[in-house]
Amino acid sequence: MSAIQQNVEAASAKYSESFTKGHLALPPAKKYLVLTCMDARIDPAQAFGIELGDAHVIRNAGASAVDALRSIVISEQLLGTTEIVLVKHTGCGMLTFKNEDAFGIVEKNLGAEAAEELRKHSPDLLPFPELEKAVEEDVAFLKKSKAVPESVTISGWVYEVETGKTRRVV
Amino acid sequence: MSAIQQNVEAASAKYSESFTKGHLALPPAKKYLVLTCMDARIDPAQAFGIELGDAHVIRNAGASAVDALRSIVISEQLLGTTEIVLVKHTGCGMLTFKNEDAFGIVEKNLGAEAAEELRKHSPDLLPFPELEKAVEEDVAFLKKSKAVPESVTISGWVYEVETGKTRRVV
């Protein structure tokens, strides 16, 4: 067992010992979802004030709304959420490369077949050159999507990894 | 401003007041990633023992490895992670429907164009009928993927929303 796997087991033993939330229902109690980045420096529950059971939390590289659309529609249409809080962040890795850079790295490290497999799965790796603009564009994408009804409230934010603050953009 | 947006602002003010982690680096310090479900009843940091800055956390509907491949490859090839901890959970919404049910609900609620947009984006919404089997299949998918090198350590787990326990499957 790896050190990381051992850590999961130890944390789980400790967490479950004092666990008292086994009664929570499947649909989020506060009917909202948070979409943010997979970045290691973000703890959504603490930073954005999410109580256990209250909200879906979707995370991917860059907090991409395009990438998250499947999960967002399932959240809303099957589990009743009616509000989206989208949070990108300062210092995001997605600000640091372009598609061709990334595919080039994969091809160099893992070979042409690996790069081709990734290209087929994700022809666009969804990097973005400007943070605030990317928040605006992702909110606009969701507002335009027919699969997200107009009744859904959508806001866009930036989390600052340097200060722990979250500020509204749109 | 909605009550949920007010809650984000209040939580952020409180969190940033005592924030001391502004120095953390972009690449995850412990070089691993956790892939789990967006389910509101999961707090990965607490349940799986993730310290701020240590690991990428990817979350989507069902903890789908197929859906997460873009983020996983970016995590590994651009940000140096070398281990994947994949955690699905009991009581998952993805156990409760089939693709045609979900597309039918979207069409009924939002119209044929919305269902068609979703179908184009995600022809498979990635539900699964059996929990443990789905964990095994997702781990197998990652092990088979050329874009995930053999050197990456992969384990598959189930989190029990009833007990707060995480147990290893594969």
Automatic annotation (TrEMBL), chains A, B:
<dbReference type="Pfam" id="PF00484">
    <property type="entry name" value="Pro_CA"/>
</dbReference>
<dbReference type="GO" id="GO:0008270">
    <property type="term" value="F:zinc ion binding"/>
</dbReference>
<dbReference type="GO" id="GO:0004089">
    <property type="term" value="F:carbonate dehydratase activity"/>
</dbReference>
<feature type="binding site">
    <location>
        <position position="92"/>
    </location>
    <ligand>
        <name>Zn(2+)</name>
    </ligand>
</feature>
<comment type="function">
    <text>Reversible hydration of carbon dioxide.</text>
</comment>
<keyword id="KW-0456">Lyase</keyword>
<comment type="similarity">
    <text>Belongs to the beta-class carbonic anhydrase family.</text>
</comment>
<keyword id="KW-0862">Zinc</keyword>
<dbReference type="InterPro" id="IPR036874">
    <property type="entry name" value="Carbonic_anhydrase_sf"/>
</dbReference>
<feature type="binding site">
    <location>
        <position position="37"/>
    </location>
    <ligand>
        <name>Zn(2+)</name>
    </ligand>
</feature>
<feature type="binding site">
    <location>
        <position position="39"/>
    </location>
    <ligand>
        <name>Zn(2+)</name>
    </ligand>
</feature>
<protein>
    <recommendedName>
        <fullName>Carbonic anhydrase</fullName>
        <ecNumber>4.2.1.1</ecNumber>
    </recommendedName>
</protein>
<feature type="binding site">
    <location>
        <position position="89"/>
    </location>
    <ligand>
        <name>Zn(2+)</name>
    </ligand>
</feature>
<dbReference type="InterPro" id="IPR001765">
    <property type="entry name" value="Carbonic_anhydrase"/>
</dbReference>
<keyword id="KW-0479">Metal-binding</keyword>
